[in-house]
Design a protein that fits this description.
five-stranded antiparallel β-sheet; about 45% strand; globular; about 280 residues
């Protein structure tokens, strides 16, 4: 009987262990071993977490290169940071200067979606704090992508925004087929001809109001703007039920800082696709 119990115990241990290995397949917290500011500190804790004694716009950095070559993250949907305690200051995730996601203070996790971006050549990921603070990161995970998004154009043109000089309206009738969970996609290039411009912003509100959309509320700064990566080419907002109600009534007004917008699409979930291992 003892031998049987021992075998069962060993089997259970191996089974649990294999689950942990499967989970860790998408974990990349072990790659975070440096900071952008030499005066920042990081501590690798015994439980696998990392404590970052952060300075304003420094960065906890993970190099994700393999054999000193950039990696292709096309098969992933997002990267998520989980924190041991709610953040005390706004933070952002930057993926090789291509994708950025801003998170307000007081959050326990932050997810950066790769929606519509070219993530075929990724070198590093950084978690940045907007002010001096202490952040303990419990885990960093990549999430496999398994959904195809089908696009319907709802606005086309050439809006060179400059310094908040231009914006445009997407009319309410373009949202009559939109439902909760659909996405509004904004396709653009960042204007880089002015060397004094070092950041790029988008702001999306219900037309005729001062209210920003709910779907990306956690990603907005204090002025209601989403920060774009220097090499970003699109930005997507998951629409909430309230967004749909307001957009069908008022439409959307989009403006920003040094982006050249050429198209906006309504995205709906299509058929699932297999994720290559």
């Amino acid at each position: 009987m003892k031998n049987v119990l021992l075998l069962l115990t060993c089997w259970a241990f191996v089974a649990c262990g294999s689950t942990a290995v499967d989970d860790s397949e998408f974990s990349i917290i072990s790659k975070f071993n440096s900071t952008w500011n030499i005066y920042e500190e990081l501590v690798h804790n015994s439980d696998g977490s990392i404590t970052n004694y952060a300075l304003p716009w420094g960065g906890l950095v993970g190099s994700v290169k393999e054999r000193n070559m950039s990696v292709d993250w096309s098969k992933y949907e997002s990267i998520r940071f989980d924190f041991a305690e709610p953040t005390k200051v706004p933070t952002q995730i930057m993926v090789s200067d291509k994708v950025k996601t801003w998170g307000k203070a007081g959050i326990t996790s932050l997810t950066c979606y790769f929606d519509g971006q070219n993530v075929t050549s990724i070198d590093e990921v950084a978690l940045q704090a907007s002010d001096t603070t202490v952040i303990t990161v419990k885990s960093v995970y990549l999430s496999p992508g398994n959904v195809v998004w089908e696009a319907t154009p709802i606005w086309e043109g050439n809006c060179e925004q400059g310094n908040w000089e231009k914006g445009f309206v997407i009319k309410p009738e373009n949202f009559t087929t939109a439902y909760e969970g659909d996405k509004l996609e904004i396709v653009f290039t960042t204007a880089k001809s002015n060397p004094n411009v070092t950041f790029w912003l988008l702001k999306t509100i219900y037309n005729g109001t001062d209210s920003t959309l709910e779907g990306n509320a956690s990603e907005l700064n204090d002025w209601g703007c989403a920060t774009m990566g220097k090499e970003a080419t699109s930005y997507r907002i998951v629409l909430t039920a309230h967004d749909i109600e307001m957009l069908r009534e008022k439409g959307a007004f989009i403006n920003g800082y040094y982006n050249n917008i050429t198209q906006c699409n309504l995205l709906k979930k299509g058929s699932a696709q297999d994720v290559e291992e």
